[in-house]
Amino acid sequence: MTQGANPGTRALRARGRAAVIVAATVAAALVLNLAIYAVGRALGGDFRFTAEGQPAEVDAITLVGFTSVPLLVGMTVVALLSRIWRWAILVAMVVAPALALVTVPIMTIPADLDEASTITLALCHIALVPVTLTGLLALRALRQKLTLAPASE
Fold this sequence. Notes:
2 strands; 74% helix; 5% strand
């Protein structure tokens, strides 16, 4: 049997490529946000604030969690939905940046962080926009390639 002769092979390869796109998007967001965070720390941000009357701090582990978990879940859902609903990626291209940006005035600005920490965390939210859009565009290109590809390769 030649490669691609099995119809399930193409679907498996597509799922593998989608998983790579999701993982690469999350990895890129983590690297970028950790770099922004490191600069914020170097510029004197202490990332301390008060939550429910208790002192709290945004450390690197917290940043990793708040970056990777929502992005991983969102990109995975979109990758799966895009297999059955062709508009999923287009909707995500509007919703994902909106969520990343709206969380700045909802979460970051109201916290009693110092100025350097506020700016740094806001930049982390904003940095998610191009990274997420790039990942979604890669998923869209993959879906278009699969749609246009002949049944057997």
